[in-house]
Amino acid sequence: MNKIHPFFILAASLMLLMGCSEAESSEDGRPDVVVTTTFIYDMVQVISEDTDAFDTSLVIPAGEDPHIYQPKASDLKLILEADTLIYQGLNFEGRMVDVLDEGVSVTKNFSKDKLMFEGEGEADPHFWFDIDLYKSATNTVYETLAEAYPEHRDTFLRNRDAYFEELDALDAYVGDRIEEIPPSSRLVITPHDAFGYLASNYDLEVHAPQGISTDSEVSNSTIEETANLIMSRDIKAIFVETTTNPDQMKRLQEIIDSRRGAVEVVGSEGEALLSDSLAQEGDSGDTYISMFRHNIDTITEHLK
User: Fold this and answer.
1) Fewer CB within 10 Å, N or C, the chain?
2) First CA to last CA distance, the chain
3) Global pTM?
4) Highest-confidence range of 117-121, 266-270, 279-283, by mean pLDDT?
């Protein structure tokens, strides 16, 4: 017999409690735009700057891993009562995809040939490390907000265009920094495979013991293969991510130490890479642009 997912039980219970009532706006009377991830939250903040068209609510808090985030009853209530719901898609919000169908996915206009895939399987959802794809997603946010709040369309458009110029400057900055790393050292080792788009666009290699989702197991043989790769390429540093367990990287370091090698685990004092979430508000990396610069600066300084 098929098991019923606990989230469906939660959803059914809340829907019964809410009945057929219409969605309520936020306490200050403005509509509520609900977004699932920090990346979309940042897009909405950028596009809606200098307006008071709506309030914005975030479902998955900064620092949490969307792949494995277990939604709460309050999250579902927020989603069901949203005036506008915007989510990532590509199965990124792995444990809540069944309640997002009524929203708008920022990846809905992506061309399949622009996406990366894990073998013959699912698409890699970490598109934000491809700035052109991030622009496309941001444009979908602009279109969604302009349709829902047309009186602010001109401001939204002006903000989008100015932001695209900032993203073009970011693209140039990233390319210049990568050039500082010798070609033979451009191998980025991380816990899970979140940086494929970055590698594809900026002449890097990436390798991770875990696949594109953190909701998967890591075998001993994969750890051994990764250690062998680090030794054979004489890689100086491997990188922890803020939303993953650092134990994999420490284990790799121990294996390499036992073979009389040496590798630095980069992840202390704010140096961990930001992959699946932006930083907490007020911390370095709490916007898309500052996140990207943080990652590139950290990678470059430790591999060059």
Assistant:
1) N
2) 55
3) 0.89
4) 279-283
